[in-house]
Amino acid sequence: MNKSFYKTIKPTAVFLSWFFVVSIIAFGSSSFSQEEEGQVKIDGKSLFKSKCSSCHQPHKDGTGPKLFGAKNKWEENAMEGSIYLWVNNWQAAAAKDPYAQSVSELKPSAMNPFPELSKAQIDAILDWVDEQPVPTKSNDSLANAGPGGEEEEESGNSLIWILLGVSFIVIILSVGGVRRQLSISLKEKEGTGDGKDKLTYTQELKALAWKYRLQTGLISLVVVLSIIVYLFQTLYGIGVVEGYQPSQPIAFPHSVHAGKNGIDCKYCHNSVMKSKTAGIPTVNVCMNCHKQIQGEDEAKKEISKIYNAAGFDPTSLYSPGKGQPIVWNKVHSLPDHVYFNHSQHVVVGGIDCKQCHGDMTKMTETAKVWPVKELNEIEGNIKLTKPTLTMGWCIECHDKKEVSKGSLDTKKDGYYDEIHRRLLNNDKELYKKYLKDNKVSVKELGGWECGKCHY
Amino acid sequence: MEITKKYWKSLDELNETKAFLESKEEEFPKGMSTEEFLSEETSESSSTNRRDFLKFLGFSVAAATVAACEAPVIKAVPYLNKPENVTPGMPTWYASTYYDGATYTNILVKTREGRPIHIKGNKDFGFTKGNTTPPVIASVLGLYDSSRIQKPTIKGKQSKWSNIDTSLKVAIENSKTVTLLSGSIISPSTSKAIEDFNASLKRQGKALNHIQYDAVSYNAIRKANLENFGVELIPDYDFSKAKTIISFGADFLSTWLFATQFQHQYGYSRNPDKDWMSKHFQFESNHSITGSNADYRAMIKPSEEQAVLEYILHSFDSNVAKPKLNSAIKNIADKAINSLIETKNESLIVSGSNNKSIQLLVNKLNNSLSTYGTTIFTGNQIHLFKGDDKKTNDLIDSIISGNGSDLIIFQGVNPVYTHPKGRDLAKALKKRKNTVCFSMHMDETASNCEIVCAESHSLEVWNDHNPKTGHYSISQPTIRPIYDTSNFLECLLIWSGNIQERDGKNSRNGYNYIKNNWTKNLTTKNNWNMAIHNSCINIEDEKEEGVSDFIDVRQISKVKKGNGTTEVIFYQKTGIGSGTQAGNPWLQELPDPMSKVTWDNYFTMNPYEMKAKGYATTFDQENGLNLATLTVGKNKITLPVYPLPGQTKGTVGVALGYGRGGNGEKIGKAAFQTKEYGGYVLGKNNKPKPIGQNVFPLIKNIDGCNQYSTIGSLVRSDEKYLIASTQIHSTVMGRHSIVRETTLGIYKKEKRDAYNPKHTLQKLDKHGNHVEAPISEFDLWDAHPVENIGHRWGMAIDLNACFGCGACLIACQSENNIPVVGKDEVRRGREMHWIRIDRYFSSDEEAAIGTKKDKDNFNLSDAEIASLNPKVVHMPMMCQHCNHAPCETVCPVAATTHSNEGLNQMTYNRCIGTRYCANNCPYKVRRFNWFNYPSYKKFTEVNPAQDDIGRMVLNPDVTVRTRGVMEKCSFCVQEIQAAKLVAKKEGRAIKDGDVDCACASSCPADAISFGDWNDKNSLIRKDSVDQRSYQALEEVGVKPNVWYKTKVRNEENKDLAKLQKSKHHGAANHHDAKKNTH
What we know:
CATH class of the largest domain in chain B: Alpha Beta
Distance between the termini of chain B: 41 Å
Order of helices and strands of chain A: HHHHHHHHHHHHHHHHEHHHHEHHE
Oligomer: heterodimer
Strand order of the largest sheet of chain A: 2-3
CATH topology of the domain at 44-132 in chain A: Cytochrome Bc1 Complex, Chain D, domain 2
Structural class of chain A: mainly alpha
Number of strands of chain B: 46
Helix content of chain B: 25-40%
CATH architecture of the domain at 44-132 in chain A: Orthogonal Bundle
CATH topology of the largest domain in chain B: Alpha-Beta Plaits
CATH superfamily of the domain at 44-132 in chain A: Cytochrome c-like domain
CATH architecture of the largest domain in chain B: 2-Layer Sandwich
Shape of chain A: flat
Number of helices of chain A: 22
Number of strands of chain A: 3
Strand content of chain B: 15-25%
Radius of gyration of chain A: 31 Å
Helix content of chain A: 40-55%
């Protein structure tokens, strides 16, 4: 349309920006984060993680409001000590303090009470939160994906790198300016220049780029490639939900039920053998045990939520009310266009729950999507590389998992026996090819075909 | 003759409104070259230049990406108290019964998490043997209709049931007589409750007058039998024992009397591999589904029916004078007589006429052949259609004149719409007090009544039925009532003081009453549970045969012919019927089996006659058909005229059941005409314009019976009207390899080569000689390793059994979440049905379909013209799951691939919508999602998936496709996977019959078999190597996994016999076929 469009591609800017991007890629991802904590100091970070992080984030509103600066706000607006009361029992605080009352109206969801937290612990949490630097935008999307704080610390690091980058630019520009002025005055002194051939920054840079065209070309290639790689990595990360751990209405500890009490997974998730869904336990299943087990302290509060749901009165052991269904937040969600059947994997495939869901007997917090690294550490699991709940992860397992091992002598009337028999009788070559690794994998029987899961 | 063609897409265009003219101008932007555009000064100075545009673009892409990163929080709400027999994620099936006042059948209802989502016939129990019709399957959608009445109303205001009960009590107290006008009641418990109600009224010194009324009446059969047997009865017919079937306009495969019973009986008699095959003669005016399956079909006018009957009767009863017939009819009548003489009492004559004289003649003929006792059973009676036209007419006359009972209750009827005097009735009802109506919709009758009792859907309530002597069945609720609705039985029990309190949504009142009734009279306590499990029981009932008394034919009065030029026949379409489900978009979009027209009502006329009278006989996306006005008495009806080959000259057919909701009654969103971009077309009264016109007002009553034919005059108009049809060509155009047919004689005598030759190609043998080799030896690609290893899913369709009803299409729509696209899109050829039923008429250029009369002078353009009275083949066509699928090789993203089980898979998420696959498909079975049907405003009125309640009918195991992806028949892969999983879990191999596609399981003719071809004992394997089996377009070499079985007609066809006897005919013909397809 006009020439200025082409003019505006300034080599300076390009050069600086790639330098900047490369430096972020190179250093941004490496971990510089080792928190140094005093031995006597209460660990605000771990407290925050275990108690608050399912609803709150330091800098972003989630299920609960952001906690950064909360301490100051309460000190300014609320009654003294009101914040501790709030954390211990927000309803009591809201009844007493008008500010607390206004805070309680911020979010529709009610906060869990934490009566076990001491003043010192609450202070430690809030202090830790206030120490957290504001995350930069470039890392925002990554930080959201995970529940942890590591990413946020990294973003603190990249802030330093940004500052460094900016100062580099300033230095380069000023040095360049000085050099330019010097060379101009030198030329003037020598009498060779008459001011007309004064080069602009752009022209100068162009000349420079032309002079070192090989290097410029190579560097640009590297930059373009790294941008492409980075872009692809980012795109591949979309929809990956490893580590997803939503808040839950009841702080249900699997470690107590499946671990300490040794209840079989299938007792509560009882449609896992029958249906495509494993089934979130219905309240009547909870009540089978909790009619008797009413719990103490913390547990009592959580169990009382089941009573509310069931419309059950624990003192009279009578269900007078209608009850209210419990609304859980789904942890493992596959997209609608994927058909996944639990019974296929558990009954037919003989896959243990922990292959995909991790060792829930040790899960003290609410359920989460276990990252593949943690899954691989579990004994007996097939080792996989792709992120949990991605298609790559599914089909990787379909490649490794055998349907059944070979010889036909033991074959009887089962479904797969017939399939093996048809292979053996009609296409021995193919069967031999399949058996090269001593197994017929799910993939070889069609487990990699689109239409097996997408319809 | 001067013809000024005028095509119009909307009323706006027709009337040339100002808004239309303005928008017409703006429809196309002024032409402007790129240079001009760029050099324009305004673009220089405009605030948005190219760089800004790129910035915005980049930003919006980035924003969209960031937004996509955040995973939505999905809620999961488990049951509080899980019902014992519900497993989330698994279907639960209930045996139940369908009865809508006209159609009765035993059904199975599939529910998921407590929602009914699919209906199919119950093949294991009940005499209907799993037969269904499209309205039965589609009724599940009616359950989730948000336009249903959600609460009872009094004087148009929503109310409570307790208020209804008190109002009714007051109304009863204030009245002397109570009239109940109901549909045919076949429920023993409801009948008993009506008796109880009557008794309670008697105690109060009042009287109940109960009249039953059918929208489409079969009164003449009852009246004729009253005369012949002394009892008003409809006898039971058995088509499976009839070796000669003669039908006078009775569409017994689709809508006549008890089609769900006759379908499989007829199918049984039509198997050419048995010892005998029935010979079917059809004398009719409209080209009906039944007529299209007849071996011999004669075109008669309704006024000629009596003459033809007398002509045939003359051969068996010398008392009858022999009338004169025209030669074409006489020819077929003579053949029918010969056949009757041969088969004697193993014959069956039926007539669809509602004229007593005709029915008396039919009885007489049946009696002369002694078919009573072999194919007709007066002791076994059909209890459907108890309506009494005369009593109903008297009642309606008395209401119109302002007399009659003080309290009138309507139940299961809609006389304002279905009665000829409906308009006057509406006016009279409006003035009246104490009118009560039971209805699911605020329909034509309900909206004129004072008290409207919101009725539950039949899938929400308990009910029982006694459709036939000795047969009892139960309907059970498969879901709690969605709205605050009740049912007739519970209301009767309350009003007669039988029970004191309503039970809300628990339905226990009806259950207790029915159970009590059954355990007392029909079952013991134990087999009550069994009765519910099976949905039906058989009991030896007392049989009342009646004493036969056949009067002399000479006493039978002659049917009088009225004045006019055009005889009109009123018929019911297989989908819409009498209009009770007019708001059901599945049924509106179901192509009519004969015309393939959707979303419309029209006159059917023979194209030969249309040409002579100057009507347009071809139509397409942009070119419509002529409108014409039919005048019968004072009534005028304007509809387009559709060219239907086989319609008797001088007659037109027009379907009942259209034109509902003319005053904007809320009868369902899909019952009205929609505009091109959504919203309704408005009529003159500023209310949504109904689809088609109501022709019930044209019906006349003769001898106390409503007549479904009349006479009037039809005047053509030059105005044209756009029609949405899924098939606009008529014949198979000489493509031999698509459809194959033969006659029974040839089939029995000749070898396969004669009627079903295999395709061959020439190849060089070892010695360098040219030899013929079967097509399967030629391969362009490596074979997929599906033969003999793993599974190979295949389907076989018997063209001889398929009669084209369309049940498979609706079942597929229900099972596979197929969107409804509306008339405008169907007109553009964008219907989404995964299965279509191609209907091919024969042409005079061919002796029979696919066999050319004169090979050398074969004229393709002549071949497209269907015969005056053509033979018909119905051919279901869906994805053929080719092992060498042409679609797979052209997909640039491998979205459609072949599975190791022989399935042609479609992966929606990979599809980028190039549509190469659809272009490369020789069967044209791929469907493209042009729009986002579940959300785009154009489809709000038609697509149930856009409605929060309507969405509940979707099958959760099948993805709802979005815009821009291709889809097609998947062989119900979700059912295959489910069946495999069951086998795996049970540790056994797949058995034949484990997998049932929606189409195969819904087929009333059992025409479709499906299974694992690699299982050597499977039905499909046997069908695929059957003498009659061939593959459509086999010579293309795509190796389909679908086989068709040649159609066999029980007729004499000399031309065909000549062609099909020569041994080398197959090869010769093949070359022709090749020429035609390239």
